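User: For this week's homework, look closely at the record that follows, marking any run of repeated tokens, and judge whether sequence predicts the tokens.
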Amino acid sequence: MRAPIGFVGVLVGATVLLSATTESNASLLRGDVETIRMRDVMLTDFITLSASETLEDALTRILHSLQDVFPVVRGPQLVGAITRQAIVETLQSDGNGYLQAVMARNLAPVQPDDPLVKTLRRLVAGRTAQFVPVVEDGRVVGIVTPQNLSQSIGLYEQRRRLQRLNDARKNENPLD
């Protein structure tokens, strides 16, 4: 039983993304979204799974993680992704097996310096999934999910506001 990351994930992602445009983030999304890069919003602390791992081994590894979608690698190379739900459902229906047999392979990786707006357009157009791997030199360096995107955009905007405030203070007190 294969549970690919697909259209439903895109709809969920687009819905979460659109709800992320709360009033506090509205100015960012209207004016500054072109300047945000994937490296600004990607998660860098994440679990990767090996294509040669068994489902049971993977379940043991992800048991204490809040992550729902996991990059699957062969060596350092990204080869797929699998959801927590797909692992559990496959174990229940088919028993243990290898991740490579059930992982989704239809990924659309992006580069760290790609504009966020380009990825958002792909999400809305339905050309990517609920999981966007950020890859550099074939190695996964980050991931973006709808769950983290809203929070990351809010934190990014807060950081920029604080930076502008600090810059304004320095301009008011040039001797500091």
Observations:
- The chain has one domain: 7-171.
- Confidence is low (pLDDT under 50) at residues 1-30.
